[in-house]
Specification:
Shape: globular
Radius of gyration: 15 Å
Number of strands: 8
Strand order of the largest sheet: 2-1-5-8
């Protein structure tokens, strides 16, 4: 089973109240070939909400207690991000998810790059909290930009 960030399936759960719908990913969920989830909503955060970034380190540093997830207005939302990642992992395990397509650059879901904690639009190499937790637990993580091979394989399987 494949897990997909809910915002990529058209669910308006992004921090700004919008989605980043990608039709083939949405179709995978509606046909039952994938499961959608939003770690930030699972962590109890509202939609819309202030933008947040990892400040003072990496996702691994947040898990180790050495960095925080902060909103642009200065609110510490680390606990909500951790709780959401843990709930997403529970759902992933229950659904038998082995691969997750997660939203690029997100402090939860980013799999290759995340914003650098300065709220200036600069990105650094790194992962979001959910992506890091999934990888640590054996779930392959890709983003919407690198999932073309996954989509091609999924379409081929659908034709067989």
């Amino acid at each position: 089973m494949i897990g997909i960030s809910a915002c990529l399936t058209g669910i308006a759960c992004r921090y700004d109240g919008r989605s980043n719908r990608i039709i083939p990913l949405d179709e995978m969920v509606t046909s039952g070939r994938a499961v959608a989830f939003c770690p930030e909503v699972l962590g109890g955060m509202s939609t819309p909400r202030d933008p947040a970034e990892i400040v003072g380190g990496t996702a691994e540093d947040v898990w180790a207690g050495h960095a925080r997830v902060m909103t642009v207005s200065g609110e510490d939302v680390t606990d909500a991000f951790k709780q959401g990642a843990q709930q997403a992992l529970v759902q992933a395990r229950q659904a038998g998810i082995t691969v997750a397509v997660l939203k690029a650059n997100s402090p939860s879901c980013g799999s290759q790059m995340v914003y650098d904690g300065t709220f200036t639009g600069n990105k650094v190499v790194g992962s979001g909290l959910t992506a890091a937790l999934f990888r640590r637990n054996g779930i392959e993580v890709v983003d919407e930009h690198t999932c073309a091979a996954l989509l091609a394989a999924e379409q081929k399987d659908g034709m067989d």
